[in-house]
Design brief:
This protein has 173 residues and is of the alpha/beta class. Helix content is 41%, strand content 24%. The protein is built from 6 helices and 8 strands. It has helices at 13-25, 58-65, 84-93, 115-130, 138-148, 160-172; strands at 3-8, 28-31, 41-51, 54-55, 69-78, 101-105, 107-108, 151-152. Strands 1, 2, 3, 4, 5 and 6 form a 6-stranded mixed sheet that branches. It has a two-stranded antiparallel sheet with strand order 7-8. Helix 4 packs across helix 5 (138-148).
Protein backbone atom coordinates (compact mmCIF):
# COMPACT_ATOMS: atom_id res chain seq x y z
CA UNK A 1 0.00 0.00 0.00
CA UNK A 2 1.34 3.41 -0.95
CA UNK A 3 0.52 5.83 1.86
CA UNK A 4 1.30 9.38 2.89
CA UNK A 5 0.92 10.92 6.36
CA UNK A 6 0.90 14.72 6.39
CA UNK A 7 1.15 16.59 9.67
CA UNK A 8 0.66 20.08 11.04
CA UNK A 9 2.01 20.14 14.56
CA UNK A 10 2.36 22.86 17.17
CA UNK A 11 3.41 20.71 20.12
CA UNK A 12 5.10 17.86 18.24
CA UNK A 13 2.39 15.26 18.96
CA UNK A 14 0.91 15.24 15.46
CA UNK A 15 4.37 14.93 13.92
CA UNK A 16 5.12 12.00 16.24
CA UNK A 17 1.86 10.28 15.30
CA UNK A 18 2.28 10.90 11.55
CA UNK A 19 5.75 9.38 11.67
CA UNK A 20 4.54 6.36 13.65
CA UNK A 21 1.56 5.84 11.31
CA UNK A 22 3.87 6.02 8.28
CA UNK A 23 6.29 3.58 9.92
CA UNK A 24 3.49 1.13 10.79
CA UNK A 25 2.01 1.23 7.28
CA UNK A 26 5.26 1.41 5.33
CA UNK A 27 4.59 4.89 4.00
CA UNK A 28 6.12 8.32 4.26
CA UNK A 29 5.41 11.29 6.50
CA UNK A 30 5.67 14.92 5.44
CA UNK A 31 5.20 18.34 6.99
CA UNK A 32 2.17 20.12 5.53
CA UNK A 33 4.46 22.63 3.80
CA UNK A 34 6.18 19.90 1.79
CA UNK A 35 3.24 18.01 0.30
CA UNK A 36 4.13 16.18 -2.93
CA UNK A 37 2.50 17.46 -6.11
CA UNK A 38 1.94 13.98 -7.51
CA UNK A 39 -0.78 11.72 -6.11
CA UNK A 40 -1.34 8.03 -6.63
CA UNK A 41 -1.52 7.14 -2.94
CA UNK A 42 -3.82 4.42 -1.70
CA UNK A 43 -4.19 6.28 1.59
CA UNK A 44 -3.53 9.83 2.76
CA UNK A 45 -3.64 10.58 6.49
CA UNK A 46 -3.76 14.12 7.86
CA UNK A 47 -2.49 14.49 11.44
CA UNK A 48 -3.15 17.71 13.37
CA UNK A 49 -4.24 18.95 16.75
CA UNK A 50 -7.71 19.67 18.10
CA UNK A 51 -8.26 23.18 19.40
CA UNK A 52 -11.68 24.21 20.78
CA UNK A 53 -13.26 21.24 19.01
CA UNK A 54 -11.82 22.05 15.58
CA UNK A 55 -9.05 20.13 13.84
CA UNK A 56 -6.32 22.57 12.81
CA UNK A 57 -6.64 23.60 9.12
CA UNK A 58 -8.76 20.56 8.22
CA UNK A 59 -10.98 22.11 5.51
CA UNK A 60 -8.02 23.51 3.59
CA UNK A 61 -5.88 20.40 4.03
CA UNK A 62 -8.72 18.09 3.07
CA UNK A 63 -9.15 20.00 -0.19
CA UNK A 64 -5.41 19.72 -0.92
CA UNK A 65 -4.85 16.14 0.26
CA UNK A 66 -7.99 14.24 -0.81
CA UNK A 67 -7.15 14.36 -4.53
CA UNK A 68 -3.76 12.74 -3.82
CA UNK A 69 -5.17 9.41 -2.67
CA UNK A 70 -8.00 6.92 -2.94
CA UNK A 71 -8.79 7.17 0.79
CA UNK A 72 -8.46 10.03 3.29
CA UNK A 73 -8.29 9.60 7.07
CA UNK A 74 -7.68 12.08 9.88
CA UNK A 75 -5.56 11.51 12.99
CA UNK A 76 -6.17 14.26 15.54
CA UNK A 77 -4.31 14.76 18.80
CA UNK A 78 -5.97 16.28 21.84
CA UNK A 79 -5.36 16.65 25.57
CA UNK A 80 -8.67 15.07 26.55
CA UNK A 81 -9.03 11.29 26.88
CA UNK A 82 -10.07 10.12 23.37
CA UNK A 83 -13.36 8.37 24.15
CA UNK A 84 -15.77 7.19 21.44
CA UNK A 85 -18.26 9.89 22.48
CA UNK A 86 -15.64 12.64 22.23
CA UNK A 87 -14.44 11.30 18.86
CA UNK A 88 -18.03 11.35 17.53
CA UNK A 89 -18.44 14.95 18.77
CA UNK A 90 -15.18 16.08 17.11
CA UNK A 91 -16.02 14.23 13.88
CA UNK A 92 -19.43 15.94 13.71
CA UNK A 93 -17.97 19.42 14.44
CA UNK A 94 -15.47 18.94 11.64
CA UNK A 95 -17.77 17.41 9.03
CA UNK A 96 -16.15 13.98 9.17
CA UNK A 97 -17.77 10.58 9.09
CA UNK A 98 -17.04 8.68 12.32
CA UNK A 99 -14.82 6.17 10.49
CA UNK A 100 -12.61 8.93 9.04
CA UNK A 101 -11.33 10.17 12.40
CA UNK A 102 -8.99 8.66 14.96
CA UNK A 103 -8.38 10.67 18.14
CA UNK A 104 -5.09 10.32 20.00
CA UNK A 105 -3.90 11.86 23.22
CA UNK A 106 -1.30 14.59 22.63
CA UNK A 107 1.06 16.82 24.53
CA UNK A 108 1.25 20.41 25.69
CA UNK A 109 4.10 22.79 26.30
CA UNK A 110 3.10 26.45 26.20
CA UNK A 111 6.70 27.46 25.51
CA UNK A 112 6.53 25.72 22.09
CA UNK A 113 3.46 27.64 20.97
CA UNK A 114 3.16 30.97 19.22
CA UNK A 115 2.19 34.15 21.03
CA UNK A 116 -1.51 34.04 20.08
CA UNK A 117 -2.01 30.39 21.07
CA UNK A 118 -0.09 30.92 24.32
CA UNK A 119 -2.23 33.94 25.20
CA UNK A 120 -5.52 32.10 24.59
CA UNK A 121 -4.44 29.03 26.56
CA UNK A 122 -3.23 31.16 29.46
CA UNK A 123 -6.69 32.76 29.55
CA UNK A 124 -8.27 29.28 29.62
CA UNK A 125 -5.95 28.25 32.45
CA UNK A 126 -6.79 31.45 34.35
CA UNK A 127 -10.52 30.85 33.93
CA UNK A 128 -10.19 27.31 35.31
CA UNK A 129 -8.00 28.55 38.15
CA UNK A 130 -10.68 31.04 39.23
CA UNK A 131 -13.30 28.31 39.60
CA UNK A 132 -14.08 27.19 43.12
CA UNK A 133 -12.33 23.90 43.89
CA UNK A 134 -15.66 22.10 44.41
CA UNK A 135 -16.87 23.30 41.00
CA UNK A 136 -13.85 21.94 39.12
CA UNK A 137 -14.31 18.67 37.29
CA UNK A 138 -11.56 16.10 36.88
CA UNK A 139 -11.24 17.28 33.28
CA UNK A 140 -10.78 20.89 34.53
CA UNK A 141 -7.97 19.77 36.85
CA UNK A 142 -6.24 17.78 34.11
CA UNK A 143 -6.47 20.67 31.63
CA UNK A 144 -5.22 23.15 34.25
CA UNK A 145 -2.20 20.92 34.94
CA UNK A 146 -1.55 20.39 31.22
CA UNK A 147 -1.55 24.16 30.71
CA UNK A 148 0.64 24.78 33.77
CA UNK A 149 3.41 22.23 33.21
CA UNK A 150 4.78 20.53 30.10
CA UNK A 151 2.62 17.43 29.62
CA UNK A 152 3.06 14.47 27.30
CA UNK A 153 0.32 11.86 26.85
CA UNK A 154 1.54 10.57 23.48
CA UNK A 155 1.65 6.80 23.13
CA UNK A 156 1.98 4.69 20.00
CA UNK A 157 -1.05 2.64 21.14
CA UNK A 158 -3.33 5.48 19.99
CA UNK A 159 -2.49 4.83 16.32
CA UNK A 160 -3.62 1.20 16.43
CA UNK A 161 -7.29 1.83 15.45
CA UNK A 162 -6.19 3.91 12.45
CA UNK A 163 -3.60 1.34 11.37
CA UNK A 164 -6.21 -1.42 11.63
CA UNK A 165 -8.74 0.65 9.65
CA UNK A 166 -6.13 1.39 6.98
CA UNK A 167 -5.15 -2.26 6.60
CA UNK A 168 -8.77 -3.47 6.49
CA UNK A 169 -9.62 -0.83 3.88
CA UNK A 170 -6.66 -1.88 1.77
CA UNK A 171 -7.79 -5.52 1.80
CA UNK A 172 -11.29 -4.48 0.65
CA UNK A 173 -10.00 -2.28 -2.16
Amino acid sequence: MKMLAVYKSKSGASMYYAEEIARALGGESRHYRSIPREGGYDLVVYAAGVNAGKIDSLPRMRAVLSPLGKRFLVAASCLKEPTEEYAAEIAEKNGLKPGELTLMRGRMNLARLGFFDRMILRMVRSKIGRKAEKAKTQEDRELFNALSFPTNFTDVKYILPLVKKAREGNENA
